Amino acid sequence: MHYPEPISKLIDSFMKLPGIGPKTAARLAFHVLDMKEDTVLEFSKALVDAKRDLTFCSVCGHITDTDPCRICKDESRNRSMLCVVQEPKDVIAMEKMRDFNGLYHVLHGAISPMDGVGPEDINIPDLLKRLQDDTIQEVILATNPTIEGEATAMYISRLIKPSGIRTTRIAHGLPVGGDLEYADEVTLSKALEGRREL
User: Where are the zinc fingers (C4-type) (predicted)?
Assistant: First the structure.
């Protein structure tokens, strides 16, 4: 079916989001048409503001509206522990459980030769620079329990071992093939408690 151009463009825009196919995109587009104009303007402003006002923390790589981010600036956090995660959404998942009071480092991806992503394509060099500071005594590798996440954790652990910094991996209380952002707080807490030396 041929839609008028404005709705067709809106459907195409929704389809650019992950997991949104043509039917869901059309349903969302028609829902937007039913919304009040003020609500639509508020929604579009939120999209633009998120894109314009958010950046990545120059220290840890987490999304932030201030640099450095609030976590890195928080003096009450345990600066001897550094939790390495794949994506900013993983920091948010870890923070929800309220059991970890250390710092974070966001890789922005995982090593995946099949997708052409090597160690130099993710935030590993900045991690190694941070570890030159004698404050960090333990690095917790909390990459996703997928093939790529495991490969990334193993690669990083081999780089860190010679420095003498304790390197642990969160336990597999998480389902293999899953993502941190979808895990509940109890599962994440148990996984963190059961971390092991690599």
Answer: 57-72
